[in-house]
Write a structure and sequence with these properties.
10 strands, globular, single chain, four-stranded antiparallel β-sheet, alpha/beta, binds adenosine-5'-diphosphate
Length: 258
């Protein structure tokens, strides 16, 4: 087949709908007798425009899955795709660019820069990527997180919940393909946690954002479209439209089995 003919072929109908796809992903720390198999042959697809909770007992591989899916860690085997981009075949420079431009992060500890204002923290990913802020989008993101009157403040002048709102705005500002959230409500009281989960939920419902959240909290998981359970580094089940009660029941069963 000539190169010209190949180039003219239409895009296949089965173009991937997953924002993130893991195929046969394993991650082993250390070697020999002391090796820890944090992930074992994990297959998972996270559809675009959905909110997924990654759950499981402590040590089941949740953080490792998140780190591998976000291009922060490299699997020992298998492939990780962000859209059509295979992260496992990329060099460090390319990976750093992908993380900066196509991925957003929300951490338990907020991870804001204390010397920057709220506004500067929110636009930092754009500056790092050498992109100009789309003023209308920036206004919308700041309004959505309810911080329009706080953009000149420093993080230390805000409550924990407000700081996490800044982090959510920072994660959304580049319009990333996916937002990864690692225990985003772990440091917050229940009411504030509900606010933050509501924000992530509306980012999915209104903006079509894809959100993948590691959490140990069944109440947090009840805000998502689906929960994926890990146990011993393997996928141990899925639950669509999870309720807190059903998630609690599944987690207890997994802890019993672990
Ligand atoms: P979870 O987030 O579900 O608590 P992790 O992904 O943090 O689980 O860890 C899965 C397993 O991998 C655990 O046994 C943990 O001790 C191990 N692990 C994680 N990171 C490292 C590391 N850098 N070096 C060695 N072992 C690790």
């Amino acid at each position: 087949m000539s190169a010209a003919f190949r180039a003219a072929r239409p895009i296949p109908a089965e173009a991937p709908a997953a924002a993130v796809r893991l195929e046969g992903v394993s991650r082993t720390y250390g070697r020999g007798a002391g090796a820890v198999h944090a992930l074992r042959d994990v297959d998972a697809a996270f559809p675009r425009g959905t909110f997924t909770a990654v759950m499981g007992p402590s040590g089941s591989g949740k953080s490792t899955l998140l780190q591998c899916a976000a291009g922060l860690d490299r699997p020992t085997a298998g492939t990780v795709r962000l859209g059509t981009a295979d992260l496992t075949r990329m060099g460090e420079t390319q990976l750093a660019k992908i993380r900066r431009e196509r991925v957003g992060f929300v951490f338990q500890a907020f991870n804001l820069l204390p010397s920057l204002t709220v506004g500067q923290n929110i636009t930092l990913p754009l500056r790092l990527a050498g992109r100009r802020a789309d003023r209308a989008w920036l206004r919308e993101v700041v309004a959505r997180v309810g911080l329009a009157d706080r953009t000149g403040h420093r993080p230390a002048e805000l409550s924990g919940g407000q700081q996490q709102r800044v982090a959510v705005a920072r994660a959304l500002v580049t319009r990333p393909d996916v937002v990864f959230a690692d225990e985003p409500t772990g440091a917050l009281d229940p009411d504030t946690a509900r606010d933050i989960l509501g924000l992530l939920r509306t980012a999915v419902a209104d903006l079509g954002q894809t959100v993948i959240m590691v959490t140990h909290d069944p109440v947090a998981a009840a805000h998502t479209d689906a929960a994926v359970f890990l146990c011993g580094g393997r996928i141990a089940g899925h639950l669509a439209a999870p309720t807190a009660d059903e998630v609690t029941r599944r987690l207890s069963a997994l802890r019993g089995a672990a």
